[in-house]
Each structure stands twice: as structure tokens, then as C-alpha cells.
Amino acid sequence: MSRVTLSRYLIEQTRSHNTPADLRFLIEVVARACKAISHQVSKGALGGVLGSMETENVQGEVQKKLDVLSNEILLEANEWGGHLAGMASEEMDKAYQIPGRYPKGAYLLVFDPLDGSSNIDVNVSVGTIFSVLRCPNRNGQSGDLGEEAFLQPGTEQVAAGYAIYGPQTMLILTLGNGVKGFTLDRELGSFVLTHDNMRVPETTQEFAINMSNQRHWEPPVKRYVEELLAGKTGPLGKDYNMRWVAAMVADVHRILTRGGLFMYPRDSREPEKPGKLRLMYEANPMSFIIEQAGGASTNGLQRILDIQPTSLHQRVAVFLGSKQEVERVTAYHQE
Ligand code: F6P
């Protein structure tokens, strides 16, 4: 049987699910940009791309050279095609305006150009996360696109995905009807469908959390992790294993492949911030993917996709993965 490339998959989606041509084009452009990022990431020290800039992003994090480069690759790839009304990125304070010389389109693209970038210098997996929203009707309003156009709950996403730059480069995509995994064939330069129907098993014996923050967690998280660590002799009655890559893309990819629970809870280090991860370009796209694969995702109290964002770079606590464990830790919060 012939191989199904990303292009063919998208064309078939247009036939079977009426995926609009401009959304198809958008996904293809993002995928092309991810190939370019993958190429840069793989050069490492040979490409002079390792190390940090002297700048900080809007989150106050030191920018890596590859953060900045990946952001530029995504902006340049997407600004001219006429499919977007605007973009927003982890690396930019404000919404990115499509230059006046190009036509504007119906969609908004939100992304984390290089997630887990502290892993770059040690040659461990990193990735790109993206979310696609429809641009609300601006009622004939011209001028710059404001932040408010982007502030839509995750349920409004029309597509989401991530690329993982690991031993293989893969693109994981949902258009709202299941989750597909494509592997980059470097000789052909195409993403090829290799994981047709990705599903997160309902139960698991694996969890992911940064344990070094334990003393800062809230009581329900402390209780839950204590129970996990108690293993067979504890109330959960089974032994659990722990993994933490410190790149959300890599941890979520493992969970999508073999199950597990990912947690980044809010904690008392910076009480004014509800967690570390960002809602719009980390938690929302990953939650959409995980739900589409049969898993669940909450902030401990409510479904992440139902949260009404109030700012572009808003943070959120995240518990996502195998349904049974997400429900358990969420119930502990609600008690
Ligand atoms: O974007 C933030 C991020 O790099 C995630 O990809 C990752 O899950 C998390 O931070 C790692 O956090 P920590 O450095 O606390 O382990």
C-alpha cells in the first residue's frame, strides 16, 4: 500500500470532513516550518545555534538562540500566505500583526516555537506546540488585531498539534476527529502517517512531575503523589513508575504513546501565578490532543478546555493523561 503523506491525509480530510482549503494550507505551512526547525535543532553545535541570547522573553525567561530562530521561522513561513489574521507566540509580548502588504485570512495561530528549550544544550528532545483558532468577526474594524481576538476557550480550537524533535521528528495533529502521528522521512522531506489512531490508555502506572517542587505543592497534590509513591502497599494498590523529561512535548508524547499522567500543579513559590505552563499555547493544544485521544485534562478543578482566557500569556495548573488518574487527582482537589 502506498504511504499516506501529511498532504494526502489533509486532502482526504477535505473530502471526508470538509476541512477548508485554507486550514489545510495552514497546517502544511506549519509542518514545513517544523521541518526547518528540526533541521536547525539537529545541527546543534555545528550550526552555532546552541546557547542563550542576552535577552529575556515576556515570561522573564532567558531566550535560547533556537527559541528566537524557531519563532522567526514560524512567523516568516506563515505571514504571507493569506490564511491568517494574526499570530501569537510565547516569545512575543503582543500579538503579531500580518504585514499590510499581505492578505489576511480567517485563522489565528498561537504557538510555543521551541518548548522545553533548556534541553537543547544537553541534546534532549524539544518540540513546537501550536493551536489554531478562528478569528472572530471584527465587524469591519480595521487596524491592529488586539489580544482579545485570541482569548477564546480551548473548546474553540479548530486544530492543534505539536512537533517533537527527538530521535525521530514527528508531527502529531488533531483536527477534532482523532489524533494522527506523522514521522518525518528525511530522504523524501515529507511527513508520513505512521500512527493512525493514537489513544491514551485509560489506566496507567506511570506519572510525570517535577518532584523537586514537592514542598511547595498544595495539599491535594501532596496527598495524591504520596499515594502514588506508596505503591502496592498504599491505598492505590499498585506500584507506579516516574519519568520527567522537562519538556512538555516529550512528556506528553510518551503519555500519548503508552499512557501516563502529566502534572504541573500550581504551587506556593509564586502564589500570584496559577502554575508554570501557559494556557493558550501549551495547555490548550495539548489538552485538545489528549482529549481527542481518549484522555482527560484539568487544572485540578475544571476541564482546561473550558477555561475562558483573560490574557495571552496566562498560566495554568495542568493534570493531563490517562483518564482514571486525572479524575482521581481532580477529585482530591474538589474534596
Ligand atoms: O514551557 C515550560 C517547560 O519547559 C515545559 O516544557 C516543561 O514541562 C516544564 O517547563 C519543565 O519545568 P521544570 O523546569 O520545572 O522541570
From TrEMBL:
Name it: Fructose-1,6-bisphosphatase class 1
Q: Write the record's keywords in alphabetical order, separated by commas.
A: Carbohydrate metabolism, Cytoplasm, Hydrolase, Magnesium, Metal-binding
**Note accompanying the cofactor annotation:** Binds 2 magnesium ions per subunit.
Q: In which pathway does it act?
A: Carbohydrate biosynthesis
Q: Which residue numbers delimit the Fructose-1-6-bisphosphatase class 1 C-terminal domain?
A: 200-334
Location(s), subcellular: Cytoplasm
Which Pfam families does the record match to this protein? Answer: FBPase, FBPase_C
Binding positions for Mg(2+) 1? E90, D112, L114
Question: Which GO terms fall under molecular function for this chain's record?
Answer: fructose 1,6-bisphosphate 1-phosphatase activity; magnesium ion binding
Q: List the SUPFAM superfamilies hit by this protein, alphabetically.
A: Carbohydrate phosphatase
Organism (species): Pseudomonas taeanensis MS-3
Query: An example of a Gene Ontology BP annotation on this entry?
Result: sucrose biosynthetic process
Q: Which amino acids does the record list as binding Mg(2+) 2?
A: D112, D115, E282
The Fructose-1-6-bisphosphatase class I N-terminal domain covers 5-195
Q: Which family does it belong to?
A: Belongs to the FBPase class 1 family.
Catalytic reactions on record? beta-D-fructose 1,6-bisphosphate + H2O = beta-D-fructose 6-phosphate + phosphate
